[in-house]
Amino acid sequence: MAENAAVEISDDRERGTLTAYEDGKAAGTIAYFVMAPAPGALVAVHTVVRPEHEGKGIAGALVRKFYALAAEEGVPVVPLCPYAAKWAQRHPDEAPAAPEELVREAERQLKDHPELF
């Protein structure tokens, strides 16, 4: 489905959330963390869209913005979130693959620090 142009996306780095708003209401979120040592990578952990907003392209818009933020910061994205990983496979021109050692380190950091999720 085409991504919704009316969605506004806000990054809250302190909380590790990228949130999409539709008509001023939170519609979806990517939970993420900045891999240590910062800025090692942006690691997408979980993508959620509220049921009443599903099917509007919000999850795709969030992941696209997440990759754009990482590109602006000059860091890779490690998509541990299954949705983000699938999106990246479908959009290789916008979502360069992270080196395997970076993926393994992100997985280790998440396992060692479950509060990051």
UniProtKB/TrEMBL annotation:
Q: What CDD domains does UniProt report for this protein, alphabetically?
A: NAT_SF
* Annotated PROSITE patterns: GNAT, GNAT_YJDJ
> What InterPro entries does its record include?
Acyl_CoA_acyltransferase, Gcn5-rel_NAT, GNAT_dom, GNAT_YJDJ
Q: Which residues form a coiled coil?
A: none
In alphabetical order, the GO MF annotations are:
acyltransferase activity, transferring groups other than amino-acyl groups
Tell me which PANTHER family the record gives.
BSR4717 PROTEIN, PROTEIN NATD1
Tell me the protein's name: N-acetyltransferase
